[in-house]
Write a structure and sequence with these properties.
Number of strands: 2
Number of helices: 8
Strand order of the largest sheet: 1-2
Length: 166
C-alpha cells in the first residue's frame, strides 16, 4: 500500500486556537494524518466517524489523488458529501475540486450533480467550497457546472492598464 505526503502547508484552525504556532509544527501534519499516510489510515478515520477528524479526509485525499487511485479518492469524497456536519460536507465538495486539479479528471456522471446540489446547500461554508470546486472544474476540465456563475473581471476594457504602464 502506498504512502502519501501532505501538501497542506499550514496547521488546522483547532491547532491555532490552542496557541500552537506554525513554526513549532511539522508541515506534514493535517488533523489525524501525517506524512506517510495510507489508504488504511483514511479508512480507519472514516470508520471512527468523528467529524473533527472526517473534515480532513477529503482534503488529504483530494490533494494527493494523483498519487493514489483517483476513483478511490472520488469515492471517499462522495461518501462524505451528505454528512450532517457542514465542515465535513463542505470539505468533501472541496476535495472533489482538488481531484479535478490534481488529476485533470472527474467522473462527470457521479460528481457534477453533487457539485450542482452543493451550490444550493443551506450552509454558506458548503456553498463557498462548492464555488471553489466548480471553479477548479471549469479551469482544469473546461466544464461549467450548472448553477455556477464564474466570477468575471469587473474592469471595463477602458479601465485596464496598458502593458507599457506596468
Amino acid at each position: 500500500m502506498p504512502n502519501f505526503s501532505l501538501n497542506a502547508g499550514r496547521p488546522s484552525w483547532p491547532l491555532r486556537r490552542l496557541g500552537v504556532r506554525r513554526s513549532t509544527l511539522s508541515l506534514d501534519l493535517m488533523g489525524p494524518f501525517s506524512a506517510g499516510w495510507t489508504e488504511k489510515d483514511v479508512e480507519t478515520v472514516l470508520g471512527r466517524g468523528l467529524p473533527d477528524e472526517l473534515l480532513y479526509v477529503p482534503i488529504v485525499v483530494g490533494m494527493n489523488a494523483a498519487d493514489c487511485d483517483r476513483m478511490w479518492a472520488e469515492d471517499v469524497c462522495l461518501r462524505l458529501v451528505d454528512h450532517v456536519h457542514f465542515n465535513v460536507r463542505g470539505n468533501a465538495v472541496l476535495g472533489l475540486g482538488h481531484i479535478a486539479r490534481t488529476c485533470g479528471a472527474l467522473s462527470a456522471e457521479r460528481v457534477f450533480p453533487v457539485l450542482e446540489r452543493a451550490l444550493d446547500d443551506p450552509h454558506p461554508y458548503v456553498r463557498g467550497h462548492a464555488e471553489s470546486a466548480a471553479s477548479e472544474v471549469r479551469q482544469y476540465l473546461g466544464v461549467v457546472i450548472n448553477g455556477y456563475e464564474p466570477h468575471t473581471d469587473h474592469m471595463a476594457d477602458g479601465d485596464r492598464p496598458d502593458e507599457k504602464d506596468q
